[in-house]
Each structure stands twice: as C-alpha cells, then as structure tokens.
C-alpha cells in the first residue's frame, strides 16, 4: 500500500505558551493535536482577552499564501488568566508528500488586532509519508 501521510510540525514544540509571550502577543498557539491527522489539524489557542466582543481565527494556506482560508476558533473553558479557543483546519485530499500547510493565529478584540505567527515565520506542517502505509502505522 502507499505510505500513509502525516502532517509533521516544522517548528519546535514549545509546550505551553510562556506567560511573558502571552502578555506581549495577547494570543499564542497552545498546542496541536498529536499526531496531526491527514484529514484535519486540531489545536488550541490561548488569548489574553478583556471584556467586550472578540474574534479568534486561524488563517491557513496550502499554496504558499497565493490564497488562504480564515477559520473561526471556538471558545473552550478558560484557564485563568487566559481564555482558550479550539480550532480545526480541514486538509484537502490533494495534499501530497513534501507539501506544506502554513498557518497563523489572529485575535481581534476591543484592544486591537494581534497575531501569533511564530515570530514572523508562520507555523508550518510538512506532509510526510509514513513507512508501512495505513493509519495503524502512525507514530504514538
């Protein structure tokens, strides 16, 4: 069978966002589901919000930003002092080994607009083949 495809993070896994980073950016990627499925990518975001209306979206692309999709993130139970949001990015079946998914997170609230774009590099997931094929071959 052909190899199973996995989306592998191409950025260091910093674990929980640091309090200083969250204070400075107001929005941070908290974590990605592991491993990222070949059909969707799930993750959580922390936001240092305030009162008033707010919007958290994840902007992502499969074609090096020639086009992109904005997906709303949904509120989750908060973990003070941060609010938490969950997101799911749909991966097209046409994604092939070697291609990439890039994303960044946007928070808009009464205080303004803030981005977490991995320090200007964006977050990148690389599509990699997993030897042996089939979903059972995915790493633990």
From TrEMBL:
GO biological process: regulation of glycogen biosynthetic process
Organism superkingdom: Eukaryota
Gene Ontology terms, MF aspect: glycogen binding; protein phosphatase 1 binding
One of the record's GO cellular component terms: protein phosphatase type 1 complex
Domain CBM21: 19-126
Gene3D superfamilies: Carbohydrate binding type-21 domain
Pfam family, one: CBM_21
Record-given protein name: PP13G phosphatase
Source organism of the structure: Poecile atricapillus (Black-capped chickadee)
Name of the coding gene: Ppp1r3g
């Amino acid at each position: 069978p052909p190899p199973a495809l996995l989306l592998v993070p191409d950025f260091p896994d910093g674990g929980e966002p640091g309090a200083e980073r969250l204070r400075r950016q107001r929005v941070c990627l908290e974590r990605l589901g592991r491993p990222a499925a070949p059909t969707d990518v799930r993750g959580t975001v922390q936001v240092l919000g305030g009162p008033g209306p707010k919007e958290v979206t994840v902007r992502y692309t499969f074609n090096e930003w020639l086009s992109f999709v904005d997906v709303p993130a949904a509120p989750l139970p908060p973990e003070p002092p941060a609010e938490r949001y969950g997101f799911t990015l749909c991966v097209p079946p046409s994604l092939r080994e070697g291609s990439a998914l890039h994303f960044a997170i946007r928070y808009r609230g009464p205080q303004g607009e803030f981005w977490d774009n991995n320090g200007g590099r964006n977050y990148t997931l690389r599509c990699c083949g997993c030897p042996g094929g089939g979903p059972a071959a995915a790493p633990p």
